[in-house]
Amino acid sequence: MLFSRRHRNTDRTIAEFWRWWSGARSRVEVAIADGAWSAALVTEVSRQVRAIDKELEWEFTQGSRAGHALVLSAAGVPRLRAVAERWRRAAPEADQRWEYHSTRQPDPNSLSAALTVSGHEVKLPELRFDCRIDADRYEVDVAVHHPDFGRLTEPDRLRVAFLALDWLLGEVAVELWVGTVEVSVTLPPRAESGEALVAVVAQLARRLRDTTWVPLERTLAGGRPQLAAVRLPLKPVRWPRLDTHVEVVVPYPAGRETGLPTEAALGALGRLEERITATAGGATLVAHETSAGRRVFHLYAETGAAVVEPVREAVRGWEHGRVRVRTRYDPSWQAIRPLRP
């Protein structure tokens, strides 16, 4: 009930934002054209965004297809991804003047300018990036260097680094493909330009298709084997609206020594998975794990979506024991964190 009420309140403030925007956009266009932003207009925009959520960030930028873009970003806060995406889905149709995004879009041209941070001017073309692909995690670890980093505090260095990554790759690609981010005062031996980083990330992304499932084999505490399969990259930013974990725990006939399914049970579990995915239209299966006589299917759905009863109907009649279906609000996808490579 709490999440349903919060959902309705957010939808109300989103609708109020777009009603305000219909009257305010012409004033914003004038401010962009003149380069004369009044403090009152900036405060007005901020007030409308904060009414949706105080932690959302906004910006106006050049559009990729339209003249301008309005971006409302979750800024890495997991619970806000679905909020920003609902805001985008409620937006007006894009036209020649405006387009709308729930994440920061790539804008490599931004790296041709300078950025002022805590009174220091940082010439962004001098940024260099040391990139290392971690094949097991399907991520790129990045070290960012600038000759002026020695004059900046660590928080300011990180701010420059993350802004540069967002501009080079876009916010979604950063969350999907970038692993660790470090800042370096000295020039790393393999440092290259931003274009090289873009190429490395594109290379990594080509390795995985949208439907890629990767099998995992592990040994749990006590020596028990575990089999799992996950969709990579297994990160919530791929499915920004899905913030509720749906766990389906299915018992099965297991081999006495291993606890893994018999051949017949493995076939039955596969058919059950097909029924679950066919009926749970509002949810997405992202992983499953198998050990000790049970398989756990991990699905994610949008808050308020009617998926539990269809899933229960799909597993009704399972002849190998009682199937449990549980849900919890989990915008960070903590429930499946142990399954990430």
Description:
The protein is an alpha+beta fold and 341 residues long. The protein folds into three domains: 2-101, no CATH class; 108-207, no CATH class; 213-339, Alpha-Beta Plaits (2-Layer Sandwich), CATH 3.30.70. It contains eight helices and 14 strands. The strands form four sheets. A six-stranded antiparallel β-sheet has the order 9-10-12-13-11-14, with helices on one face. Strands 1-2-3 form a three-stranded mixed β-sheet. Strands 6-7-8 form a three-stranded mixed β-sheet. Helix 4 (154-169) packs across helix 5. The longest helix has 33 residues, at 2-34. It is globular, with a radius of gyration of 24 Å.
Biggest beta-sheet profile? 6 strands, antiparallel
Rounded to the nearest angstrom, the distance between the terminal CA atoms is 35 Å
Order of helices and strands: HHEEHEEEEEHHEHEEEHEEHE
Assembly state (oligomeric): single chain
Task: Flag low-confidence runs.
Answer: none
Strand order of the largest sheet: 9-10-12-13-11-14
Number of E strands: 14
Q: Hey, roughly how much beta strand do the residues contain?
A: 25-35%
Helix content: 25-40%
Q: Tell me the domain tally.
A: 3
State the CATH class of the largest domain: Alpha Beta
**CA-atom Rg in angstroms:** 24 Å
What's this model, at a glance?
By secondary structure, this protein is an alpha+beta fold. The longest helix is centred in the N-terminal third of the chain and has 33 residues.
